[in-house]
Amino acid sequence: QVQLVESGGALVQAGDSLRLSCAASGRFVSFYGKGWFRQAPGKEREVVAAINWSGDSTYYADSVKGRFTISRDNARNTVSLQINRLKPEDTAVYYCAARRKGTTMSEDEYDHWGQGTQVTVSS
Hints:
- The protein is mostly beta strands.
- The chain contains no helices and eleven strands.
- It has strands at 3-7, 11-13, 18-25, 33-39, 46-51, 58-60, 68-73, 78-83, 92-99, 112-113, 117-122.
C-alpha cells in the first residue's frame, strides 16, 4: 500500500519562496515516478512537474518553468517542490502523486495520490 503525505503549504506573500515536501511509504516506492499537481479554486487539477525514479529526468508545465523545481531523495523516500517568486495565481491545493512505471505529465496515469497541502499567496 503506497501512501503519500504532503507538507509545507502555507499562507505567503507574493514574491516569497516555499518548499513543499511529499513523504512516500510503501514497497518499492523509491522506484516510482512522482509528480506534483495543483488545483486552484473553481478550476480543474493541473500538472505542475514530474520526475522519474532516479531523479535525472524532470518535466515541467510551461506555466511554472523557471520558478518551480522538483527533486527527490530516494534514501528518505521524499519528493520536493521548490517554488520561487510566488504569485497569487499559484494559490491552490498542491498534490503529490506516484506512478509505478515510468514518468508522465498525465494525471490519469498516476496510481496513488496524497491528500494535498494548501498554498495561499497574498498580493
